[in-house]
Amino acid sequence: MNEVKYLVSGDCAVCVEFGNEISPEINRKIRAFKLAVENEAIEGIVETVPTYRSLLVVYKPELIRFGELTEKFEALRGKMETIQIPPPMVVEIPVFYGGETGPDLEAVARHNGISPEEVVQIHASGEYLIYMLGFIAGFPYLGGMDPRIATPRLESPRVRIEGGSVGIAGEQTGVYPVASPGGWQLIGRTPVKLYDPDREKPVLLEAGQYIKFCPVDEAEYAAVEQRVKEGAYVPVTYAKEAE
Amino acid sequence: MGIKVVNGGFLTTIQDMGRYGYQETGLAVSGVMDTRSAALANLLVGNDENEAVIEATMVGPMLEFTEDIWIAVTGGNLGAKLDGKPVSRYEAVLVKSGQTLSFSGMAGGSRAYIAFAGGLDIPMVMGSRSTNLKAKIGGLDGRKLGTGDLIGFAAPKTWLPAPEKRKMEPEDFSAKEITLRVLMGPQDDCFTDDGIWTFLESTYTISNEYDRMGCRMQGPVIEHKNGGDIITDGISFGAVQVPSHGNPIVMMADHQTTGGYTKIANVISVDLPKLAQCMPGTRIRFKKVGIEEAQALYCEWRAEVRALSKRFAAQTEPVGELQAAALAAALNEHKHSWSSEGVYRVVVNGEEFVIELSKETARFR
């Protein structure tokens, strides 16, 4: 059993730290521990926040104190092997690449000395691990982009990037949940809303899941967009195959 | 109806104790900056401590009431006035339709809270009525109050038991220097011994960059071992971030859920309301305490809330019990009646109740 650290994060939270690097292995441990904690339904826990390196556990000290909580965590870690952790889901995100909604596709291709079609093919072939959500509601921090399409950010950021924009910044790829300013190289757009406060589940994705981008044409894009508007769109998901 | 906003003031928002349960999706908690003052305002008018209140910042709003209701104003003294006459803070006040609540200026403290008996008619968004300005949700369309806005009351109370007892000693927020107790961590190991010493032994001054997200302070540079950047990690309300520039920033109610800067310590929960009431220029000292002490203080505060809640709500119980007993007696009598309606006179504990029964309702006269 590897060491974890229980770091005091104020009197109402503890940071359970699993490591100090960005790695799928640490992410798996955090996800497993989060599920185990939720499964245990420990009284006094308000919520948990997974990040690259840790799980922040927010709790009510009037119901459970720091010492008691961390003892429970240690006991839980002792029986992690016996807890069934379901395989993570892969969520398909339909993307219309290039055109007006992907104005930087050509630039990304030129920067890497490949064709725009190859950029799309490479970008849509990977399954991207969602390490965490943060920055704004629904923004996924993704890992695992192929370095062959890595491209620096724009020198001067755009004032407004529409929600659903798919972009590349350095060796990262991501999707903007809502309109915001930004300097990412935009290669396409999805009609799927990663964040919609009026939806029963406002944020579509969860840390520990994977994203698979699926190229669609204009007609398919419009069809999905219509279903999203009607509140009838359900993304295609499947369990990730063990690596 | 409820209130008409004549003037929104500087930054007036609707808040409750915050939107918990969505931080893992990147959505900030928000909620009141000064949890103590907001809870006290609610308790004074017999509300649950988590009821939505109006948080006024520095320059308060001007609100015209279109319906009678009991209110309480707590927190920083922003010079609350009803029709131009001073309003007692930390005391239940009956406001009549047509009256105007305004604020004349700061006299200690920067955030005032107004609670309304029976609550505000504001929809729940993801389990909370708090305004999240960045995500544009909660409160009034996710924004601050402005001229012309109309806010309804949920179940306005124009009668409260023992109103003369609904008062507390007003709290004073005029100190120019305060000490905030802190718990060290989670990244105190990223600082040199000198850095830790500087943090705990120096005086910092709150800068002008103080908003609902964070409070920036200026003072001696806190030395890191290897700079102030870390791999992104979760953030608590009250976390003291120290980026590479070496000056502290305390994360407040609208703080981001995650961040990539070292956090040397965390202001303890019971001291955060003091910081929430500070103005730029206030001098701050940090004092280290242990987790047992901090959590004991937190639990004391929770006990205080429970006691106050009982004190201000308990007075309704004897009346409620008597009414319930009277109703039961009336219903028992009514069983022998053929009519679906009837008027009954019942004496319980020497007190006489007249109860009108109709098909669906029972009414006390």
Protein described:
The complex is a heterodimer of chains A (243) and B (365). Chain A is built from five helices and 14 strands. In chain A, strand 3 (45-50) and strand 4 (54-59) form a beta hairpin. Chain A is an alpha+beta fold and 243 residues long. Chain A has helices at residues 24-40, 66-78, 105-112, 116-123, 218-229; strands at 5-8, 13-17, 45-50, 54-59, 89-97, 127-133, 140-143, 158-161, 165-169, 172-175, 180-182, 185-189, 210-215, 237-239. Chain A has two domains: 5-82, Gyrase A, domain 2 (2-Layer Sandwich), CATH 3.30.1360; 89-239, Cyclophilin-like (Cyclophilin). The model of chain A has no long low-confidence stretch (mean pLDDT 93). Chain A is 24% helix and 29% strand. Chain A is elongated. With 365 residues, chain B is α+β, with helices and mostly antiparallel strands. Chain B has helices at residues 35-44, 193-201, 272-276, 291-314, 316-334, and strands at residues 2-7, 13-15, 53-57, 62-65, 69-75, 80-82, 85-86, 92-95, 100-103, 111-116, 150-152, 177-184, 203-210, 214-218, 229-234, 239-241, 249-251, 258-261, 263-267, 283-288, 342-348, 351-357, 362-364. In chain B, a hairpin with a 4-residue loop joins strand 22 and strand 23. The two termini of chain B are 26 Å apart. The relative contact order of chain B is 0.14. The model of chain B has no long low-confidence stretch (mean pLDDT 92). Classes of the chains: A alpha+beta (243), B alpha+beta (365). At the A-B interface, strand 2, strand 3 and strand 4 of A face strand 15, strand 19 and helix 4 of B.
H/E element sequence of chain A: EEHEEHEHHEEEEEEEEHE
CATH homologous superfamily name of the largest domain in chain A? Cyclophilin-like
Tell me the domain tally of chain B: 3
- What's the order of the H and E elements of chain B? EEHEEEEEEEEEEHEEEEEEEHEHHEEE
What is the averaged pLDDT score of chain B? 92
- The best one-word shape of chain A is elongated
What's the CATH architecture of the largest domain in chain A?
Beta Barrel
Largest sheet data of chain B: 7 strands, mixed, barrel
Q: Structurally, how many domains make up the residues of chain A?
A: 2
Helix residue percentage of chain A = 10-25%
Could you give the count of β-strands of chain A?
14
